[in-house]
Design goal:
By secondary structure, this protein is mainly alpha-helical. 71% of the residues lie in helices and 0% in strands. The protein is built from 5 helices and no strands. The longest helix has 22 residues. The two termini are 24 Å apart.
Length: 99
């Protein structure tokens, strides 16, 4: 029974974390690593989104120590919601809250 109350007690805390995260998500321009994440994920405003195989190749070629899972997910997310810095940061916020 105590676990049920503990679980429900975490909901307001998680909602507060999401609200605080969303509140300042668009406060700054893109950082250097965010720009590269969008590049690896295939955000190309002039050319449209690149195929997932190209995302895989970019990560394998340029982002040597990093696995491609996040960039593939970011590529799919960008196709769904857009390539704005806010949209990319929302994915990271949701993954952080999920973790």
């Amino acid at each position: 029974m105590a676990h049920k109350h503990l679980t429900w007690g975490m909901v307001p805390l998680l909602l507060l974390a999401v609200w605080l995260g969303l509140h300042s998500l668009n406060a700054r321009p893109l950082w250097y690593d965010e720009w590269y994440s969008l590049y690896y994920a295939g955000a190309a405003p002039q050319h449209g989104p690149v195929p997932l195989a190209t995302v895989w190749e970019r990560v394998a070629r340029d982002a040597d120590p990093q696995p491609p899972g996040y960039y593939l997910l970011l590529s799919l997310w960008g196709r769904l919601v857009g390539w704005t810095p806010f949209a990319a940061r929302v994915l990271s916020l949701l993954l952080g809250v999920l973790a």
